[in-house]
Amino acid sequence: MKILEFLYARLQGEPPIHPLDRRLAKRWVKERLKRLYPELRRDPEALEQAYQELGLEPQEGTGKGGATVFQITLPGEVR
User: Fold this and answer.
1) Running DSSP on this structure, what letter comes out for residue 38?
2) The pTM is what?
3) Which of 21, 39, 62, 74 has the most beta carbons within 10 angstroms of its beta carbon?
């Protein structure tokens, strides 16, 4: 029976990212942006805009498993 459970788990793919993990990842990226660009420390709107311009929102992956991926999209780049 364990073999069938293993195969079923593999066919389902990766489990979705937990919302808490998404928030932690976003916070970590924003902290790194604050260290790289000190002028963003006191401007939450500009910090959020910089985060959005990086295009780091999670996207569903393609291919076998379809795991969630975080892909950086540079400003001005066509998606």
Assistant:
1) G
2) 0.61
3) 21
